[in-house]
Amino acid sequence: MKVSIKEITTHRGLRDFVHFPNELYKDNPVYVPQIEMIDINTFDPAKNRAFEVCDAKFWLALDENGKTVGRVAGIINHKYNDKVGKKICRFGWIDFIDSQEVVKALLDTVEAFAKENGMEEIEGPDGLLEFDVTGVLVEGFDQLPTPYGKYNDPYYEPRILAEGYVPSTDYVEFLITIPEAMPEKHARLVGIVKERYGLKQAELKKKKDILPYLDGVFDCMNRCYSSLHGFSELSKGMCEDLLNNFFTFLNPDYISIVLNGEDKVVGFGVLLPDLSRAMQKAKGYLFPFGFIHLLKALKKNDTMDALLIAILPEYQSKGVNSLMFEKLIHNCRRDGFTKLESTRELADNIAVQNLWSKLEHRQHKRARTYKKQL
Length: 374
Hints:
The chain is an alpha+beta fold. Helices cover 33% and strands 26% of the residues. Strands 1, 2, 3, 4, 5, 6, 7, 8, 9, 10, 11, 12, 13 and 14 form a 14-stranded mixed beta sheet that branches. Strand 2 and strand 3 (68-77) form a beta hairpin.
């Protein structure tokens, strides 16, 4: 196959870029189409403050008839590179038909971009920031993804490896049964941690009640995630972008913010009703009817997604998770939720996986990134 590469420089080009996977997998029963308008905003420097620290280019692969057969982004996150003292270029948002020629053309293009900018290694799939979609799915091809863990066909990994890449980092996902009541061990701990450490729940009755704690939540997140692979500290603007992306969907009943005796945030957990099936019905579009499916899923659902969880290091062995679960398990069961999906977490992040250790759970998906020296 003769493959040509087209750099995306226009809004229309970005529309084609975000639409390609939705077209590629339109007949796949476990593919979850991303909302195209939201993805376009992700790639717009005027609307995404990740570009304060990132340079990026986007390309489409076209066949001899001009049909799109692949896509990829090349990303340099300067803040992360400064943090780790390396010259890394990321490839991200990669999708392609089952063709080695297409994969080679896409990755060769990113590698050329990396070398032009003095980079010494390439890794991906990674996003602009840690909260973008990361990794290639390698286990769980029969499982419905969460909205934050993209599906791909099994041929992706062997095609990427054939271009000289080696596995870098694994991410796992768990399906957790939400118990009908607090596990006994957690229930016993709640009273102890409240008395011994002076911890308490922030009172959250309306969404506006979250706002006074946001600085503490984002500081907690930056501190907790600082050592994680691919993460660099979020600026105030990036935190605002993250909040804006999700604020419409947040429900204070499914948010736990734990405070110490000085009313400082020491941990938090944010759950969100799973929107995957609603996004399948929306088929990539909010309008004219896609938003209705999303709103219905927020009210009638049996599955929660663990959107964000963080506990300050000095409090990780003090039962903060039990205090979180006291509220979240009760409210989830009250509202008919029986399952919890963890989003992609590092396979070696034992601190997070310990949160599920006393609950019935199973690992059902795995994703992987790859790297190559240039």
